[in-house]
């Protein structure tokens, strides 16, 4: 019993003499840095989507014989970059404002940059895939056109590549209107991101 009490007193003495280390609280990232990163992501991701869509749209416009109408996909693709530019300018103005930014503002501004950048990137990828399907009918993926199977008089199968001819030219005016409507709906994905981003900034 005496030995047990002496050990208990020894443990208590060691605990009382131990050095207590105070762990500092988690330091939030600088809200100014988060806002700047949001502006960078908004502009860079949206322009990546615009560049992806503009490249395939420009290739279609170059090969097309429709005149000024063939440049409509290029114009629609370039609008995606404008969405990111709008958000980047708004966020950069917040960096120069007189009011100080807190941690919540920094996170919201960072999320606002992603909210417009990622939808514009997805929209640009969708427009690019759609324009490729117009240029190369039967295309299953980028750079992999489907092969059409033809048979000769003896019934033997013959393989022929699908002709690389713009699909929209050989179609009626109704098909042209449908294609433009599809482009508008694909471009609207970036507009949804812009609206969500503006709500985050103004909250």
Automatic annotation (TrEMBL):
Membrane-crossing residue ranges in chain numbering: 33-59, 71-91, 111-132, 179-201
Superkingdom as given in the UniProt entry: Eukaryota
Keywords, ordered alphabetically: Ion transport, Membrane, Transmembrane, Transmembrane helix, Transport
UniProt entry tagged with the keyword Signal: no
GO BP of this protein: monoatomic ion transport
Xref: InterPro entries: F/V-ATP_Csub_sf
Family: Belongs to the V-ATPase proteolipid subunit family.
Protein's name in the database: V-type proton ATPase proteolipid subunit
Species this protein is from: Amphora coffeiformis
């Amino acid at each position: 019993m005496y030995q047990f009490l002496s050990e208990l007193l020894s443990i208590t003495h060691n605990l009382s003499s131990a050095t207590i280390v105070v762990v500092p609280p988690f330091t939030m990232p600088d809200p100014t840095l988060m806002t700047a990163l949001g502006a960078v992501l908004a502009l860079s991701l949206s322009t990546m989507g615009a560049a992806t869509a503009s490249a395939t749209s420009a290739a279609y416009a170059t090969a097309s014989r429709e005149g000024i109408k063939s440049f409509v996909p290029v114009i629609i693709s370039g609008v995606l970059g404008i969405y990111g530019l709008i958000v980047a300018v708004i966020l950069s103005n917040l960096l120069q404002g007189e009011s100080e930014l807190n941690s919540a503002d920094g996170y919201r501004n960072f999320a606002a940059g992603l909210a417009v950048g990622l939808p514009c990137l997805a929209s640009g990828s969708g427009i690019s895939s759609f324009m490729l399907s117009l240029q190369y009918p039967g295309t299953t993926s980028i750079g992999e056109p489907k092969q059409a199977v033809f048979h000769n008089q003896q019934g033997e199968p013959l393989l022929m590549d699908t002709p690389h001819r713009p699909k929209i030219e050989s179609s009626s005016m109704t098909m042209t209107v449908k294609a433009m409507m599809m482009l508008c709906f694909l471009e609207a994905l970036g507009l949804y991101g812009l609206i969500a981003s503006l709500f985050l900034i103004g909250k």
